[in-house]
Amino acid sequence: MAQACGKSKPVFATAPYEPDDAGVLRAVLPARCVHAEPAETCSLFIDHHRARKTGPGFPLAVVGCSRHPVGRYTLYPPGHIRHGRQPVVPCSPAGPLLRDREGQPRWQTTVFAAAIDAAAGVWWPDDSPADDPRRRRTQGRHLELAGRLLGIHADVDSRTRERIAARLRVPTMTLRRAARGWTSSWPARGGAVLTVLQALPLDEALADRILAAGMVAELWPRPQRWQADRRTSVRARSGGAKHPVTKPSQSRAPPPTTWRLSGSSPLT
Questions:
Q1: pLDDT digits (tens, 9 = 90+) for 175-188
Q2: Nearest to 1, CA basis, from 167, 226, 204, 222
Q3: Which of 1, 77, 130, 190 meets the CB 3.0–4.6 Å disulfide criterion with 118?
Q4: Cα R_g (the chain), whole angstroms
């Protein structure tokens, strides 16, 4: 997510990053800024590149617009969020979903790794080297984030849960069932998160749906993604889903909490 300067509203904008002639990943600059109307053409420019010690691991473009000079904002790569050390969706810098050999998203590379480990009874260490983000308190924060993002945290009200289910295209009953065990142990919370991850329809719109769910959960502002091949922006809707929720073909039964981090876990 990016914070615009001055009194302008917070901005959450993503764009694909592709290698330049020197092999350095650079943002594909949108044809118009986040403040433009759909028919407008802007004059975007890169103000500077912001180095990141965590998160994507490469400098991110901070952009401005000559036509709408209301502040600079950062273009984040697909699947990433503001201040995030790990993405919420495993995407390549160019945008496509990253999958393992079984065709499942590489959730172990995201904030959901905390839930995968908790479901397996694996606790992150109380302390670790400065370059290792796997700490016990971080695991707890990521569990909290996952619960709110997927609508299964105990503090999520029923109406918000329904709206999140619509964004995720997951039956509301799946979220309700997972939410019943949220006040229990960490392994139970991890299993609840994995139940929802298993129920997600897997397609290239997965990142858009999860980021839209985070908007509903008030974790970040409305996300806006620049789609370079169509030269248009994809913006999350704030209203209800216009299409019926489709049931995933895979089982929605709660996953076992004995999955190991090595081997052929379907969610790693």
A1: 999 999 898 899 99
A2: 222
A3: 190
A4: 19
